[in-house]
Amino acid sequence: MAMAAGSGGAGLAENFAVNTYLKSHDAVDSLQQRLNLVAMYRHPDIDILSRLFYAHPTPERLLWYYLNHIDVVFHEDTGVTTLDVRAFRPEDAKRIADELLKLGEERINEFNRLVSENTIKAADEEVAIAEKRVKDVQHRMTAFRQRSGDIDPTKSSVVGISLIGQLETELAQSDTQLAQMLRNLNASSPQVLTIKQRIKALNEEIEAQRRLTQKTKGVYANIADYDELMLDREFAQEAYMTSASELETARSAARQQQVYVVRVVEPNLPGMATYPRIFLMTLAVFVGSGLTFMIGRLLITGMREHAI
């Protein structure tokens, strides 16, 4: 079986880490828990010389036996890892290969999770701090408005002063109009009386607006506080936007560092046994037997010659 691991970055360290993990005690423990590895390699059909000898092997013995039945090779030039599993039944070999691939993917996912946590955690904290600052300023502004009874003291003061100015302008125009009328009309004429009523009403309105201004002096005195709150809110909003942008940058960086596994070749069910190699073993037996026979014959011949 072959698999390739890659990432938006190099991913070389993760590749080596996964390959090391597949040959570690942790991988053996996981296989034992999920597949009962000992039972697989102690199946009654396995000959006594090849099977796992101990029913309850120590972790070191089980790891040694396991490493003698798997090969994990990482090719740096291609980024491909080749996994070869040897067992005494085809289905056992495939199950072990499938499970090792799952373990490798789980370890890769764990790497990705840690990378995301380490990269995004600090940015998340900055966003939370900036968001809290924005909310705190908003609460202070709400409390200020409730206390002052004015949504925007700056605008209110400008409106009040502007209204008094408009009324005083109208009053001046009315006074000028009255003076012109008195040159030509009697003081008791309807036109003169009307303009006098208007002048009186304007004076009363101006006085009322001035009294209102006197009542709201406390709010006007707090305009500086309101401006400070507005400045704090602006800074808080800018800090929040900056931290939110940094969070998106951190997430993008985390995505680029994501490591992933691609199954180049899926684990397959063997159609024929790779071991034992019957022809080679038979040949080795014949050669060994022949050599033993020849050596024995030479020894016997030599002993006979010396006996004579």
Set down the secondary structure blueprint.
Blueprint: E1 2-7, H1 12-22, H2 25-35, H3 37-41, H4 59-67, E2 70-75, E3 80-85, H5 90-148, H6 153-184, H7 190-215, H8 217-221, H9 223-256, E4 259-265, H10 278-307
Descriptive labels:
single chain; 308 residues; alpha+beta; 3 domains; four-stranded antiparallel β-sheet; 10 helices; 4 strands; 8% strand
Structural overview:
The chain is α+β, with helices and mostly antiparallel strands. It folds into 3 domains: 2-122 and 255-273, no CATH class; 151-215; 276-308. 72% of the residues lie in helices and 8% in strands. It contains 10 helices and 4 strands, in the order E-H-H-H-H-E-E-H-H-H-H-H-E-H. It has helices at 12-22, 25-35, 37-41, 59-67, 90-148, 153-184, 190-215, 217-221, 223-256, 278-307; strands at residues 2-7, 70-75, 80-85, 259-265. A 4-stranded antiparallel beta sheet has the order 2-3-1-4, covered by helices on one side. The chain crosses the membrane at residues 278-300. Residues 164-212 form a coiled coil.
